[in-house]
């Protein structure tokens, strides 16, 4: 059986040896392209949220649940609010965070390597005041002089915004007694009567907003000049809290309220992997696209309402929807195919030229088993031709023995049948050299017998 297999039309072993360098080169180039062009997305990401019982905290939990379905763990990093989130982004403490519009500008964002993934929702400036018996209701912000107002903790977005609003009304620093408590303890202080009012920016879904809107003795300030504020501070919009939106049965609120509102934006560092950008934008679309108190169906998320440059991947989503492959397959599989296009191009560039190298290399390897013996054969001829006259017969005899050894070794060479002509040609040439040596031996010693 071994002898039968020895004579085949094709040599698998030689083909493997011939193809191996090409395959190794292709694999090496593919691996290099795979790692250098776009590394795999990380499995964890840090999201900057906000204070306890805030809308940022609530939405952060929703994002964590959405990305967990794709195998990405979202670590929620609480903060005082927008300003602290922005600082954490710049310092690399978080990868992505909720930031209030007006917190920075385009030049500063580009300088810090930040980009927007879109605006998510409006978060009005809520000013809740404690009603005082026998005193007129506060209808102008100038009436806050001398009152105790909680602006919010350092790092939140509301203190900076409320100072701007007071400055527009001519209320100087120090004319209002400022407190800097977090929203929850500030609410307790307001209900206990130790402060006169509190300010914070938040989506209406926040539990504290829902509670304060329905608490007797606590009144929401009506920004009757909301349109003027929006003109003076372009990052603000004028929104209306409709009558009865909180509770239709109890008619809460009893009238329409005008409010001023920045927008909440999802801001990411420039080194956030594009695949994670896609996931966050898709999650934003699922979480924020519904209608609400201040938004129509499909109004958010949006590439509008943000002064921070929008990330190209996010802009592509808002224009064309999710990536084609992610519409039909799991995120990680789609991401793998999306990243592998470079590898496919590299393969196409390599396989065609290298495939032309393999057949000649295979042929050369087979024929080299025969050709290398011609060197030995030529060496025998050379020694015979250069033999000194004194030792000529001895040289002839030695080279004839050497020729017999070569023939024995050649008979053990195994090559495919399609290349057998070369092997038989070598044997005939060995025989030709043998006859020539015998002829020379006969001339050198007439009558001598052939060995």
From TrEMBL:
Keyword Cytoplasm in annotation: no
Keywords in alphabetical order, please. Membrane, Transmembrane, Transmembrane helix
Q: Does the keyword Membrane apply?
A: yes
**Mind telling me which residue stretches traverse the membrane in this protein?**
12-37, 340-364
Q: Which Pfam families match?
A: NMT1_3
- Specify the protein name: C4-dicarboxylate ABC transporter substrate-binding protein
